[in-house]
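Re: Re: ligand-bound prediction request (bumping)

Still looking for help on this. To restate: I need the protein modeled with magnesium ion bound, output as structure tokens. Inputs repeated here so nobody has to scroll up.
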Amino acid sequence: MEYRIATISGDGIGPEIVTEAKKVLDRVGTVYGHTFHYEEVLMGGISIDTYGVPLTEEALETARNSDSVLLGAVGGNVGNSRWYDVAPNLRPEAGLLAIRKGLNLFANIRPAYLYDGLADACPLKKEIIGDGFDMVIVRELTGGLYFGERRTEEVNGVMQATDTLVYSENEIRRVAVKAFDIAMKRKKKVTSVDKANVLDSSRLWRKVVAEVAKDYPEVTVENMLVDNCAMQLVMNPGQFDVILTENMFGDILSDEASMITGSIGMLSSASLNEGKFGLYEPSHGSAPDIAGKGIANPIATILSAAMMLRFSFDLDKEADAIENAVRKVLADGYRTVDIMAEGMTKVGTAEMGNLICERI
Ligand code: IPM
Ligand code: MG
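Reply:
Sorry for the wait, this slipped through. Here it is.
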């Protein structure tokens, strides 16, 4: 088959890691008889430097007309005045928000699990880690606080800023359905996270999740307040299977969940619309401090490409081949610097990509 993939290399380590993911996809293409056509799209800092805005209408259109999107990372150091001393809607991250909204990617899937052999990198105590953990965070991605009306104004001589958090029942329902569908293929447990003891939007969230749950009698549902969830993640991470939550809570909790795996350089993510279309990106950022050095870990992006094959193209055995190759490379003792441990062989970005290709 032939597939058209829009690639957004972006900023920082983005170009280096996307190069490796393409290398791995091409290897899959050779072995399994597929052709992947790539079209590079500018977004983030590089788009600001070229066009003055973080995402052009043309770039969005190219992404929309592709079969799926592979993204590296966007943004620089938040102190970087070239990209940050401007209105929020002109900063690199605004490109990411705009593409999510523009492509209706309302469901953000972020797996967080403890890799065999990388448990030493986990910052939690052994007794808390227990038998490890394997969860998926399903974060609502196009509503809530990040997309509500906002303004900064002077009221009676005092500066005041307002952000609004709005959710319609339809927005809640469609992401809840995704979470329950995912849970059905896993351990059949959904923990819906909200702040229903304070927020109206959370009370509606709880009500709609309960309605959706009726269609999934096999799935156990539990409601958890977000502050408690933040605590439970470091106290008993093994209890979670699928965590379903709104945009901002998911932003925060997914960073926490990836941190406790000790290997954020390994975690992939997918942002999906109603259908098969998705944008796939590593869970980590653009790491400007190590950009261009050839030492970034490309595995999260490579695993994001595997997610693309599975979710958007239904190429399960090809996705398995990538995931198995990653496991083999780790078992063979190869590590990039972020996951390096005693007795292992340290490799750079391109070498890691090559080693994974050799195992496909
Ligand atoms: C993420 C990031 C983005 C978000 C930023 C860069 C806008 O933190 O993907 O989690 O908050 O969604
Ligand atoms: Mg975030």
